[in-house]
Amino acid sequence: MPETHQPDPKRWTALIFIALAQLMVVLDATVVNIALPSAQADLGISDGNKQWVITAYTLAFGGLLLFGGRLADLWGRKNTFIVGLLGFAAASAIGGAAVNTAMLLGARALQGVFGALLAPAALSLVAVTFTDAKERAKAFGIYGAIAGAGAAVGLILGGVLTQLLNWRWALFVNIIFAVVAVIGAVMVIREPAEGRNRNRLDTPGVLLVSAGLVALVYGFTRADSDGWTAPITLGLFAASAVLLAAFVFVESRVAAPLLPLRVVTNRNRGGVYLSLGLAIIGMFGLFLFLTYYLQLVMGYSAIKSGLAFLPMIGGMIVGSTQIGTRLMLRVRPRLLMAPGFLLAAIGMAILAQIKVDSSYPTVLLPGLILMGLGMGTAFMPAMSLATHGVRPEDAGVASAMVNTSQQVGGSIGTALLNTLATSASATWVSSHLTSKADLKNRVFVNTSMVHGYSVAIYWATAILLLSSVLAFVLVDAGVQSGPERVDGDKSVDEDFAVPVIAH
C-alpha cells in the first residue's frame, strides 16, 4: 500500500507522552503491591478482602481490554487515550482518598476499566504513528522497554512512596502522570484519519468475551486461594471455556466482529500472543517471589528491595533499545525473540539457585541482568510484530490482544507459581521436620520458604524455555523492513508475508 501522508513532525514528542501513559498503567499492577500492607492496616481491610485490592483491578482490566481496543478503533485512538487517562486519574484520586475498604476496591475496579481503554489505545497509537521501518524499530524499542520494565519500576516507586510518604501516594502519583500525558496528548498527538473503524459495536461479542475473560482471570485467583480442584475454581474455568467458545462462534458469523478472527489466526501474531503470554507467566512469578525473598529472608526494606530490581530494568532498556532496535531491520523477528526468551531462561535458572544466605552480587545480580537483557530483546520485536500487517481499522483490537495475553499470563503466573511454591515448601517441611520447635526456628522457616521459591523459579525457567521454542517454531515472518502488507492482501506470497502496519 503506497504512502499517503507525510510523517507527523511531532511524532517523537508524542511518543514521550504515549510511553508515560503506558508506564502508568503497567506500574500500577505492582506499585500497589508494596503499599498494600500499609493500606490494610490503615483502612482495617480484612485478610479475606486484601486480595481484592489487586483482583478488582486485574478483573476489570483483563476483562475489558478487547472492548477497550475496539472502542479505540471505533471512537478514535486519541479520544480513547485521553478519556482513559482522565478516568484513570479520577479513579486514582478516589482510591488515594479512600476512607474504607469499599471505596478503595471500587476505585481499583475503576482504574481497571479506564486502564482497559488506555493500554490498547496507547499501543495502537504507536503502531499507526510510526510507519517507517527504521523509526518503527526505534519507537517499539522504547515502548517495549517501558512495557517490560514498568512492573519492576512499580516495585521501586511503591517502596519509595510508601516508605517516604504513605501508601496513598502509590495511587495519587498516577494523577501527576495522567495530567502530564493528557496535556501532551492534546498538544502533540495526531492520529491518521483513515484508520477509523466505522462499523457498529459487536455487543454480544463484548458481553461474551468480557464475561469469559473475567471468569478466566478470577478462576486463577481462586485457584491461588482455594486450590485448583475447588468447586468454585473448576466452575469458573468451565464457565470461561463455554463463554469464550461462544465468543469465537459469534465472531465467526457476525458482520462486524469485536475481534476479527484474522487478527489471531495469523501465524505470526498468534505466535507472538502465545509466546509473550507464556513469558509473562514466568516474569510475574519472579517479581512475586523475589520481592518476598528480599524482604522476608534478606531483610531488605521496601525501597531497597525495589532498587534491587534496577539491574533488570537496565538490562531491559539495553536489550530493547540497543540490541532489539539495531537488529530488527537485519534479522527475522524469531531470531530475536527465541534467543531473547532463552537468555531470560538462563537468567531465571541462575536466580533459582537462591539460598537463605545467598549474596546479591553473586546470584541475584547476574540473574537479573540476563533476565532483563533477554526479555528486552524479545519484547521489542514482539510488540512490533503483534500490530504488523493488521488492517488500519483493527489496530486497536490487535493491540488489545497483546495486553490481554500479558494480563492473562500475569494472572496465571501469580496463581500457578504461588501454588507450586507453597506445595514445595510444605513438602520440604514434612520431610525435614524433627519437632514442633523447628516451626519457630527462623532459619528452618526461611529455608522452607526459599526452597519453595527456588522450585517455582525452576518451573518459570521451563516456561520461558517453552516460550523460546514456540517463538522459533511459530513466528516465521521476514525482516521487518520491506514494503507494507496487510491482512487480506492477496498479492502477498503466503509463504513469506512481511508483516507490517497499514496506514
Could you characterize what this model shows?
This protein is mainly α and 503 residues long. It has one domain: MFS general substrate transporter like domains (Growth Hormone, Chain: A). It is 76% helix and 0% strand. It is globular, with a radius of gyration of 22 Å.
- CATH homology superfamily: MFS general substrate transporter like domains
| C-alpha end-to-end distance | 8 Å
Architecture (CATH level 2) name: Up-down Bundle
Mean pLDDT: 82
Structural class: mainly alpha
Q: What's the helical proportion of residues?
A: over 70%
Number of strands: 0
Radius of gyration, CA atoms, in whole angstroms: 22 Å
Short précis:
With 503 residues, the protein is mainly α.
Which helices and strands, and how do they pair?
Blueprint: H1 11-43, H2 47-75, H3 77-96, H4 101-129, H5 133-164, H6 169-188, H7 203-226, H8 231-251, H9 261-265, H10 267-297, H11 302-307, H12 310-327, H13 334-351, H14 360-385, H15 395-432, H16 442-474
Short key terms for the protein model shown above:
Growth Hormone, Chain: A; MFS_trans_sf; 16 helices; globular; mainly alpha; 503 residues
